[in-house]
Write a structure and sequence with these properties.
A 6-stranded antiparallel β-barrel has the order 1-10-13-12-11-14. A 4-stranded antiparallel sheet has the order 2-9-7-4, with no helix packed on it. The two termini are 27 Å apart. It contains 9 helices and 14 strands. Helix 1 (2-10) packs across helix 4 (41-61), helix 2 packs antiparallel against helix 4 and helix 5 (108-165) runs antiparallel to helix 6. The chain has 4 domains: 1-61; 63-69 and 265-312 and 329-410, Elongation Factor Tu (Ef-tu), domain 3 (Beta Barrel), CATH 2.40.30; 75-105 and 229-260, RNA polymerase II/Efflux pump adaptor protein, barrel-sandwich hybrid domain (OB fold (Dihydrolipoamide Acetyltransferase, E2P), Beta Barrel); 108-226, Helix Hairpins (Orthogonal Bundle), CATH 1.10.287.620. The protein has helices at residues 2-10, 12-22, 36-39, 41-61, 108-165, 172-227, 363-367, 373-384, 386-407, and strands spanning 64-69, 75-77, 83-88, 94-96, 101-105, 229-231, 236-239, 248-249, 257-261, 269-273, 286-291, 294-306, 333-339, 353-359.
């Protein structure tokens, strides 16, 4: 409407002045409701053409969108295992700090596993004590075997000496028996030493390994026990938390609630502009926005990021081929806007719907001197018509509460 009124002042109005004062035609006489088209046809046609051109220039170089939202991230509150809720630490809605407990699952099985692992460690420690006692017993047996061996060796040496001096005094058979006894006593010593080495190997290798395994099992059991208490991964706010004692929670089917991180959706706006404006949207463009949760306020903003992908064109691997006509709605260019001044986004609720304008500025290009006078004039005109969009945004900000509360019937 503003464009049409502006263009009519440059076309229809001068045409009317010419007809009225130059040709002497009067409204109600020569210029009637039925003769308006014939009398003012040149002005009407020029007005319509100029209006269409002006709207095209404004909407292309100064994009506008109503698809602007202060998106915020949510985190599902999920345990790492299935279980029945035993205790709830937060209410339906409330603030939580990072690491604070939210709820606890029944942990009887995990506590039993922890106690079993602790008993296994105690059993291994007791086995170490017994093994050290076995070492002392093995040393005693070795000493006993050595004594018996030495006695047999001495007796054999005595009889061999007697036999050497007087062969008839000692039977050869007795000497052979003593030699066999000496060999047997030596085997007893070897067996006792082997038994000692076995016990020492248990003390130095086997039992420490068993204790380490038991300690690892205890650590695993304690981790499983700690998982029964679900804690907040970040500071934020729990909303619509309806979980109660006795409920069954499944991480694959039923989240326990929603955690909104602190600061989520505050200080940033995401807007979807038409694909035709992809070449116009640039980082650093000045923008403005007005939001439903902060009426009658126009927030100066700046474009900080332009997403280089259009979400409507994404595909995922599946069992069916993609048909291009399945993409019914064309996607938009996702643009991130941030307030130009500190605190400018205060008071805007996360998730609020907004209207956003972005303005093309050719000032630097004109001041560089690299453009001709004609092109510089055109670029000046392009920048100047952005005022129309700024006026429209302010009218929308003024009318939106009235339209919503009064005309909308809410």
């Amino acid at each position: 409407m503003l464009e049409l009124i502006f263009c009519s002042l440059l076309t229809i109005f001068p045409d009317y002045l010419y007809r009225r004062f130059a040709q002497g035609k009067r409204i109600g006489k020569e210029i009637t409701l039925f003769s308006v088209w014939f009398e003012l046809r040149w002005g009407i046609i020029a007005c319509l053409m100029l209006t269409i051109g002006l709207i095209t220039v404004i909407f292309y170089n100064h994009p506008s969108t109503t698809n602007a939202t202060a998106f915020f991230r949510t985190i599902p509150v999920l345990p790492e295992t299935n279980g029945r809720v035993a205790e709830v630490y937060v209410s339906f809605s409330g603030e939580v700090q990072q690491g604070a407990p939210i709820f606890r699952l029944d942990s009887s099985a995990q506590e039993a596993a922890v106690e079993s692992a602790r008993r296994k460690i105690a059993e291994t420690d007791a086995a170490l004590v017994v093994a050290r006692t076995d070492v002392l017993a093995a040393e005693a047996k070795i000493q006993e075997a050595k004594s018996s061996y030495q006695q047999a060796v001495d007796e054999l040496a005595t009889k061999q000496e007697i036999y050497r001096r007087n062969p008839g005094a000692v039977a050869v058979r007795d000497i052979e028996k003593l030699e066999v006894v000496v060999q047997g006593r030596q085997s007893t010593i070897d067996g006792a030493m082997a038994a000692k080495q076995t016990v020492e190997a248990q003390i130095s290798t086997l039992l420490p390994a068993q204790k380490a395994s038991a300690q690892a099992a205890l650590a695993q059991a304690e981790v499983d026990l700690a998982k029964t208490v679900v804690r907040a991964g970040v500071s934020g706010r729990v909303e619509q938390f309806t979980l109660r004692v006795g409920d069954i929670v499944n991480p694959f089917m039923r989240p326990a609630g929603i955690l909104i991180p602190e600061g989520a959706g505050r200080g940033r706006l995401q807007a979807g502009f038409g694909q035709i404006e992809a070449q116009v949207m640039k980082v650093g463009m000045v923008a403005e926005a007005t939001c439903a949760s902060k009426p009658w306020t126009v927030i100066p903003m700046v474009v900080t990021q332009v997403q280089d992908f259009i979400a409507a064109g994404q595909i995922r691997s599946g069992e069916q081929l993609l048909d291009a006509q399945q993409v019914v709605r064309p996607g938009t260019i996702l643009v991130y806007l941030e307030p130009l001044y500190e605190g400018g986004f205060d008071g805007v609720s996360p998730g609020s719907s907004c209207i956003a304008n972005a303005y093309t500025s050719n000032h630097d290009l004109i001041e560089s001197g690299n453009v001709s006078t004609t092109r510089g004039f055109i670029l000046h005109a392009v920048d100047a018509v952005g005022l129309v969009h700024a006026m429209i945004l302010r009218i929308q900000a003024l009318v939106f509460p009235i339209q919503t509360l009064v005309l909308g019937g809410h």
